Automatic annotation (TrEMBL):
Protein name: ABC transporter ATP-binding protein
Entry-linked Gene3D superfamilies: P-loop containing nucleotide triphosphate hydrolases (3.40.50.300)
Record CDD domains: ABC_DR_subfamily_A
GO molecular function, one term: ATP binding
Family under the similarity heading: Belongs to the ABC transporter superfamily.
Length: 310
Protein backbone atom coordinates (compact mmCIF):
# COMPACT_ATOMS: atom_id res chain seq x y z
CA UNK A 1 0.00 0.00 0.00
CA UNK A 2 1.14 3.55 -0.75
CA UNK A 3 0.20 6.11 1.89
CA UNK A 4 0.60 9.79 1.12
CA UNK A 5 0.25 11.77 4.30
CA UNK A 6 -0.24 15.55 4.37
CA UNK A 7 1.99 16.14 1.35
CA UNK A 8 2.89 19.76 0.75
CA UNK A 9 5.42 21.05 -1.78
CA UNK A 10 6.47 24.62 -2.24
CA UNK A 11 8.55 26.09 -5.03
CA UNK A 12 9.67 29.41 -3.60
CA UNK A 13 6.46 31.20 -2.71
CA UNK A 14 4.32 28.99 -4.92
CA UNK A 15 2.54 26.15 -3.08
CA UNK A 16 2.23 23.53 -5.83
CA UNK A 17 0.73 20.85 -3.55
CA UNK A 18 -1.00 21.57 -0.26
CA UNK A 19 -1.76 19.04 2.50
CA UNK A 20 -2.72 16.14 0.22
CA UNK A 21 -3.41 12.74 1.85
CA UNK A 22 -4.61 9.47 0.29
CA UNK A 23 -3.94 5.73 0.36
CA UNK A 24 -3.56 3.42 -2.60
CA UNK A 25 -4.25 -0.24 -1.88
CA UNK A 26 -2.33 -3.07 -3.48
CA UNK A 27 -3.39 -3.85 -7.04
CA UNK A 28 -5.57 -0.77 -7.26
CA UNK A 29 -5.41 1.42 -10.36
CA UNK A 30 -5.87 5.05 -9.39
CA UNK A 31 -6.28 7.96 -11.80
CA UNK A 32 -5.04 11.43 -10.96
CA UNK A 33 -7.08 14.10 -12.74
CA UNK A 34 -6.88 17.87 -12.65
CA UNK A 35 -6.41 20.96 -14.81
CA UNK A 36 -2.99 22.13 -16.04
CA UNK A 37 -0.81 23.21 -13.16
CA UNK A 38 -3.03 21.55 -10.53
CA UNK A 39 -0.08 19.67 -9.02
CA UNK A 40 -0.36 16.14 -10.49
CA UNK A 41 3.24 15.83 -11.68
CA UNK A 42 4.53 17.27 -8.42
CA UNK A 43 2.54 14.62 -6.49
CA UNK A 44 3.84 11.84 -8.75
CA UNK A 45 7.42 12.99 -8.35
CA UNK A 46 7.00 12.96 -4.57
CA UNK A 47 5.41 9.48 -4.68
CA UNK A 48 8.31 8.17 -6.74
CA UNK A 49 10.90 9.63 -4.38
CA UNK A 50 12.44 11.95 -7.01
CA UNK A 51 11.21 15.09 -5.25
CA UNK A 52 11.15 15.66 -1.52
CA UNK A 53 7.97 17.04 0.00
CA UNK A 54 8.37 20.31 1.88
CA UNK A 55 6.27 18.70 4.61
CA UNK A 56 4.40 15.41 4.85
CA UNK A 57 5.54 11.91 4.01
CA UNK A 58 5.07 8.90 1.76
CA UNK A 59 5.18 5.33 3.02
CA UNK A 60 5.22 2.25 0.82
CA UNK A 61 4.11 -0.98 2.53
CA UNK A 62 4.71 0.77 5.85
CA UNK A 63 8.26 1.92 5.05
CA UNK A 64 9.08 5.61 4.87
CA UNK A 65 10.10 6.53 1.31
CA UNK A 66 12.62 9.18 2.28
CA UNK A 67 14.43 6.88 4.72
CA UNK A 68 14.34 3.79 2.46
CA UNK A 69 14.45 5.41 -0.99
CA UNK A 70 16.93 2.94 -2.52
CA UNK A 71 15.03 -0.23 -1.49
CA UNK A 72 11.62 1.20 -2.34
CA UNK A 73 12.66 2.63 -5.72
CA UNK A 74 13.76 -0.88 -6.75
CA UNK A 75 10.13 -2.04 -6.46
CA UNK A 76 8.85 1.04 -8.22
CA UNK A 77 8.50 1.83 -11.92
CA UNK A 78 8.16 5.49 -12.92
CA UNK A 79 7.23 7.00 -16.26
CA UNK A 80 8.06 10.69 -15.83
CA UNK A 81 6.29 13.43 -17.79
CA UNK A 82 9.45 14.12 -19.78
CA UNK A 83 11.61 11.08 -20.27
CA UNK A 84 15.34 11.63 -20.30
CA UNK A 85 16.26 11.17 -23.94
CA UNK A 86 19.23 9.17 -25.16
CA UNK A 87 18.72 9.57 -28.90
CA UNK A 88 21.82 7.68 -30.01
CA UNK A 89 21.22 4.62 -27.87
CA UNK A 90 19.60 1.46 -29.17
CA UNK A 91 16.36 0.60 -27.38
CA UNK A 92 17.78 -2.66 -25.95
CA UNK A 93 20.98 -0.94 -24.77
CA UNK A 94 18.98 1.82 -23.12
CA UNK A 95 16.80 -0.72 -21.29
CA UNK A 96 19.89 -2.69 -20.25
CA UNK A 97 21.37 0.55 -18.90
CA UNK A 98 18.19 1.33 -16.92
CA UNK A 99 18.12 -2.28 -15.62
CA UNK A 100 21.68 -1.78 -14.34
CA UNK A 101 20.73 1.47 -12.60
CA UNK A 102 17.70 -0.28 -11.06
CA UNK A 103 20.04 -2.86 -9.56
CA UNK A 104 18.70 -5.83 -11.52
CA UNK A 105 21.47 -8.50 -11.23
CA UNK A 106 23.55 -9.08 -14.38
CA UNK A 107 22.28 -12.68 -14.74
CA UNK A 108 18.64 -11.49 -14.82
CA UNK A 109 19.09 -8.39 -16.95
CA UNK A 110 18.68 -9.97 -20.39
CA UNK A 111 15.48 -11.75 -19.34
CA UNK A 112 14.12 -8.52 -17.76
CA UNK A 113 14.87 -6.47 -20.91
CA UNK A 114 13.26 -9.10 -23.16
CA UNK A 115 10.20 -9.21 -20.91
CA UNK A 116 9.81 -5.42 -20.90
CA UNK A 117 10.20 -5.30 -24.70
CA UNK A 118 7.60 -8.03 -25.08
CA UNK A 119 5.13 -6.40 -22.66
CA UNK A 120 5.27 -3.13 -24.58
CA UNK A 121 5.32 -4.79 -28.03
CA UNK A 122 8.70 -3.24 -28.76
CA UNK A 123 10.66 -6.45 -29.45
CA UNK A 124 10.82 -5.69 -33.18
CA UNK A 125 12.39 -2.29 -32.43
CA UNK A 126 14.97 -3.54 -29.90
CA UNK A 127 17.92 -2.77 -32.17
CA UNK A 128 16.68 0.61 -33.43
CA UNK A 129 18.21 3.83 -32.14
CA UNK A 130 15.79 5.86 -30.03
CA UNK A 131 15.84 8.95 -32.29
CA UNK A 132 14.48 6.83 -35.18
CA UNK A 133 11.34 5.90 -33.25
CA UNK A 134 7.92 7.53 -33.55
CA UNK A 135 6.45 9.53 -30.65
CA UNK A 136 4.27 6.57 -29.64
CA UNK A 137 7.16 4.13 -29.82
CA UNK A 138 9.27 6.43 -27.62
CA UNK A 139 6.41 6.52 -25.14
CA UNK A 140 6.42 2.71 -25.16
CA UNK A 141 10.15 2.71 -24.43
CA UNK A 142 9.29 4.94 -21.46
CA UNK A 143 6.77 2.40 -20.24
CA UNK A 144 9.22 -0.44 -20.95
CA UNK A 145 11.83 1.15 -18.66
CA UNK A 146 9.12 1.63 -16.00
CA UNK A 147 8.05 -2.04 -16.05
CA UNK A 148 11.60 -3.44 -16.07
CA UNK A 149 12.09 -5.96 -13.27
CA UNK A 150 8.31 -6.30 -12.66
CA UNK A 151 7.93 -3.52 -10.08
CA UNK A 152 5.05 -3.82 -7.61
CA UNK A 153 4.23 -0.12 -7.97
CA UNK A 154 3.90 1.82 -11.19
CA UNK A 155 3.66 5.60 -11.40
CA UNK A 156 2.75 6.72 -14.91
CA UNK A 157 2.63 10.42 -15.72
CA UNK A 158 0.33 10.87 -18.73
CA UNK A 159 1.11 7.48 -20.30
CA UNK A 160 -0.99 8.12 -23.41
CA UNK A 161 0.24 11.66 -24.01
CA UNK A 162 0.87 12.15 -27.72
CA UNK A 163 -0.34 8.72 -28.78
CA UNK A 164 -2.72 8.16 -31.69
CA UNK A 165 -6.09 6.45 -30.99
CA UNK A 166 -4.75 3.00 -31.90
CA UNK A 167 -1.65 3.39 -29.74
CA UNK A 168 -3.83 4.79 -26.92
CA UNK A 169 -6.00 1.68 -27.11
CA UNK A 170 -2.90 -0.53 -26.95
CA UNK A 171 -1.51 1.43 -24.00
CA UNK A 172 -4.79 1.04 -22.10
CA UNK A 173 -4.73 -2.70 -22.74
CA UNK A 174 -1.15 -2.80 -21.47
CA UNK A 175 -2.08 -0.89 -18.30
CA UNK A 176 -4.97 -3.28 -17.76
CA UNK A 177 -2.60 -6.22 -18.13
CA UNK A 178 -0.01 -4.68 -15.78
CA UNK A 179 -2.67 -3.96 -13.16
CA UNK A 180 -3.02 -7.71 -12.56
CA UNK A 181 0.33 -7.72 -10.85
CA UNK A 182 1.04 -4.12 -9.85
CA UNK A 183 -0.44 -1.16 -8.04
CA UNK A 184 -0.75 1.70 -10.52
CA UNK A 185 -1.22 5.42 -10.22
CA UNK A 186 -1.52 7.35 -13.46
CA UNK A 187 -2.19 10.93 -14.35
CA UNK A 188 -4.15 11.97 -17.37
CA UNK A 189 -6.37 14.68 -18.83
CA UNK A 190 -8.63 12.10 -20.45
CA UNK A 191 -11.76 11.14 -18.52
CA UNK A 192 -12.45 8.08 -20.68
CA UNK A 193 -9.01 6.82 -19.76
CA UNK A 194 -9.86 6.91 -16.07
CA UNK A 195 -13.25 5.31 -16.74
CA UNK A 196 -11.61 2.62 -18.87
CA UNK A 197 -8.74 1.57 -16.64
CA UNK A 198 -9.06 2.96 -13.09
CA UNK A 199 -10.73 1.68 -9.92
CA UNK A 200 -10.57 5.05 -8.22
CA UNK A 201 -10.13 8.70 -9.14
CA UNK A 202 -8.38 11.51 -7.28
CA UNK A 203 -9.13 15.01 -8.51
CA UNK A 204 -6.53 17.67 -7.74
CA UNK A 205 -7.54 21.32 -7.83
CA UNK A 206 -5.13 24.16 -7.02
CA UNK A 207 -2.74 21.75 -5.31
CA UNK A 208 -5.43 20.25 -3.08
CA UNK A 209 -7.28 16.96 -3.12
CA UNK A 210 -10.81 17.88 -4.20
CA UNK A 211 -12.24 14.38 -4.71
CA UNK A 212 -11.26 10.82 -3.77
CA UNK A 213 -13.93 8.48 -5.09
CA UNK A 214 -14.17 4.92 -6.34
CA UNK A 215 -15.49 4.62 -9.89
CA UNK A 216 -18.02 2.00 -8.72
CA UNK A 217 -19.46 4.46 -6.19
CA UNK A 218 -19.46 7.20 -8.78
CA UNK A 219 -21.40 5.02 -11.21
CA UNK A 220 -23.93 4.12 -8.52
CA UNK A 221 -27.26 5.51 -9.48
CA UNK A 222 -28.00 8.87 -7.94
CA UNK A 223 -31.24 9.60 -9.73
CA UNK A 224 -34.10 7.77 -11.40
CA UNK A 225 -36.53 8.47 -14.21
CA UNK A 226 -40.09 7.36 -13.61
CA UNK A 227 -42.83 7.19 -16.25
CA UNK A 228 -46.44 6.49 -15.35
CA UNK A 229 -49.83 7.06 -16.90
CA UNK A 230 -51.60 10.33 -16.06
CA UNK A 231 -53.60 8.88 -13.12
CA UNK A 232 -52.51 9.26 -9.48
CA UNK A 233 -52.67 12.94 -8.64
CA UNK A 234 -51.08 12.44 -5.21
CA UNK A 235 -48.15 10.44 -6.61
CA UNK A 236 -45.60 13.26 -6.38
CA UNK A 237 -46.52 13.78 -2.70
CA UNK A 238 -46.21 10.09 -1.89
CA UNK A 239 -42.81 9.90 -3.61
CA UNK A 240 -41.52 13.01 -1.84
CA UNK A 241 -42.21 11.35 1.53
CA UNK A 242 -40.05 8.30 0.78
CA UNK A 243 -36.88 8.29 2.91
CA UNK A 244 -34.72 7.43 -0.15
CA UNK A 245 -35.86 10.43 -2.19
CA UNK A 246 -34.40 13.89 -1.97
CA UNK A 247 -36.41 15.73 -4.64
CA UNK A 248 -39.24 14.95 -7.06
CA UNK A 249 -39.68 16.88 -10.27
CA UNK A 250 -42.42 16.30 -12.84
CA UNK A 251 -40.54 17.00 -16.08
CA UNK A 252 -43.25 15.99 -18.58
CA UNK A 253 -46.99 15.94 -18.22
CA UNK A 254 -49.24 14.84 -21.07
CA UNK A 255 -52.79 13.52 -21.25
CA UNK A 256 -51.60 9.92 -21.27
CA UNK A 257 -48.21 10.06 -19.54
CA UNK A 258 -46.18 11.72 -16.79
CA UNK A 259 -42.43 11.68 -16.40
CA UNK A 260 -40.69 12.37 -13.09
CA UNK A 261 -37.06 12.97 -12.26
CA UNK A 262 -36.28 11.56 -8.82
CA UNK A 263 -33.11 12.64 -7.06
CA UNK A 264 -32.04 9.98 -4.57
CA UNK A 265 -30.27 10.61 -1.27
CA UNK A 266 -26.54 9.89 -1.42
CA UNK A 267 -26.41 6.92 0.93
CA UNK A 268 -29.57 5.04 -0.09
CA UNK A 269 -29.81 1.64 -1.73
CA UNK A 270 -31.10 1.91 -5.30
CA UNK A 271 -32.90 -1.44 -4.98
CA UNK A 272 -34.83 -0.35 -1.88
CA UNK A 273 -35.67 2.96 -3.59
CA UNK A 274 -36.95 1.13 -6.70
CA UNK A 275 -39.16 -1.18 -4.59
CA UNK A 276 -40.66 1.71 -2.65
CA UNK A 277 -41.20 3.86 -5.76
CA UNK A 278 -43.15 1.12 -7.55
CA UNK A 279 -45.20 0.58 -4.39
CA UNK A 280 -46.07 4.32 -4.33
CA UNK A 281 -47.14 4.23 -7.99
CA UNK A 282 -49.58 1.38 -7.30
CA UNK A 283 -50.80 3.04 -4.08
CA UNK A 284 -51.57 6.24 -6.02
CA UNK A 285 -53.63 4.22 -8.53
CA UNK A 286 -51.27 4.92 -11.46
CA UNK A 287 -49.68 2.53 -13.93
CA UNK A 288 -45.93 2.02 -13.97
CA UNK A 289 -44.54 2.38 -17.50
CA UNK A 290 -40.83 2.77 -16.78
CA UNK A 291 -38.42 3.11 -13.84
CA UNK A 292 -34.80 3.56 -14.78
CA UNK A 293 -31.73 4.47 -12.75
CA UNK A 294 -29.30 7.00 -14.13
CA UNK A 295 -25.64 6.84 -13.22
CA UNK A 296 -23.41 9.88 -13.12
CA UNK A 297 -20.61 10.32 -15.59
CA UNK A 298 -17.11 11.11 -14.41
CA UNK A 299 -17.05 14.10 -16.74
CA UNK A 300 -20.04 15.71 -14.95
CA UNK A 301 -18.59 15.02 -11.51
CA UNK A 302 -15.21 16.41 -12.57
CA UNK A 303 -16.79 19.59 -13.91
CA UNK A 304 -18.78 20.07 -10.68
CA UNK A 305 -15.65 19.59 -8.58
CA UNK A 306 -13.53 21.96 -10.67
CA UNK A 307 -16.29 24.60 -11.02
CA UNK A 308 -16.91 24.56 -7.25
CA UNK A 309 -13.36 25.74 -6.78
CA UNK A 310 -13.96 29.03 -8.60
N1 LIG B 1 10.47 22.66 -10.63
C1 LIG B 1 9.56 23.61 -10.44
N2 LIG B 1 9.91 24.86 -10.08
C2 LIG B 1 8.98 25.82 -9.86
N3 LIG B 1 7.66 25.62 -9.98
C3 LIG B 1 7.24 24.42 -10.34
C4 LIG B 1 8.16 23.33 -10.59
N4 LIG B 1 7.44 22.22 -10.92
C5 LIG B 1 6.14 22.59 -10.88
N5 LIG B 1 6.02 23.88 -10.53
C6 LIG B 1 4.75 24.62 -10.36
O1 LIG B 1 3.90 23.84 -9.54
C7 LIG B 1 2.54 23.90 -9.98
C8 LIG B 1 2.03 22.48 -10.25
O2 LIG B 1 2.72 21.98 -11.39
P1 LIG B 1 2.56 20.47 -11.87
O3 LIG B 1 3.53 20.25 -12.99
O4 LIG B 1 2.64 19.56 -10.71
O5 LIG B 1 1.07 20.48 -12.42
P2 LIG B 1 0.29 19.40 -13.30
O6 LIG B 1 -1.04 19.19 -12.65
O7 LIG B 1 1.13 18.19 -13.50
O8 LIG B 1 0.09 20.17 -14.67
P3 LIG B 1 -0.03 19.63 -16.20
O9 LIG B 1 -1.36 18.99 -16.30
O10 LIG B 1 0.06 20.88 -17.00
O11 LIG B 1 1.12 18.68 -16.44
C9 LIG B 1 2.56 24.82 -11.20
O12 LIG B 1 2.21 26.11 -10.74
C10 LIG B 1 3.99 24.79 -11.67
O13 LIG B 1 4.33 25.99 -12.29
Amino acid sequence: MIEASHLTRQFGRNTAVSNVSFNIHNNEVVGLLGPNGAGKTTIMRMLSGYLEPTTGSVTVNGENLEQNAYTIQRQLGYLPENLPVYPDMMVADYLDYVATIKGIPRTERLRAVKEALFATEMTAHALQTIDKLSRGQKQRVGVAQAVLGRPSFLILDEPTNGLDPHQTEQMRALIDQLSRRATIILSTHIMQEVEAVCDRVLVIRNGQLALDQSLAKLRDCSSMVLRTDAAGDNLADLLAHLPQIDTVQCVKSREDMREYHLQLRGDCSADTAAGNISHCVLQAGARLYQLESQSRHLEDVYREVIDNGH
